[in-house]
Amino acid sequence: MAETYGTQRKAAARKHAAILEAAHELFAADPAVSLNEVAKRAGVGAGTLYRHFPTREDLILAVYRYDVRRLVDSVDDVLAAGSAKDAFVTWFETLAAYIRVKHGLGEALHNAALQNAIDETYAPVTAAVGKLLDACVAEGSVEPGHDPGDVLLMMGFLWRVAPDERGLAQGRRLTEIVFRGIGARH
Prior knowledge:
This is Helix-turn-helix domain-containing protein. The chain is mainly alpha-helical.
C-alpha cells in the first residue's frame, strides 16, 4: 500500500511539473491560451489540471513562482558558461522575458495575489542578483558595494523594451550604460 501511494505521489508530481512547463511555454506565446490547451500540451486531462490548479489564477501564479525558482536556481549554471558580466546580462534578459509574460497576463491576476507572489520571490531574486554582482566584483567588471535591490530596480528597464530584436539591442545598449555606471574604475 505504501509503495502504491509513493508511486501515485511521483506520478502526481510529474503531472504537476508537466502542467507548469506546458503553461510556461503557452503563456509566453499567448497569455489568453485556454486551460484545455495547457492540459493537452501537458498530456493530462482537464480534470487533472483543475485538481492541481483549481483556477486560472492559481495556474498563472504557480507558473510565475516556477519561473522565478528556475531563474534563481540557474545562477550557477549561467556563471559557469562564461564571464560574470555575460552571465549578468543573460540572467537579466531571462528575467525580463519572464516579467513580460507576467505583464502580458495582466487582468488575469488579482493585484493582491500577484503582490503576495512578488513579495515571496523578492528575497530569492535579490539573493541571485547579489551572487551575480559578487561574481562581477571578483571578475573586476563591477565596483563593490552595490545593493542587489537597487540593481534589480535599476535593471527594470529591460522588461519595458520591446520583446523583439530591436528591443533586445536597445536593452543591451542600456545594460552597457548601467555597467559604465557600476563598473570597476581602472
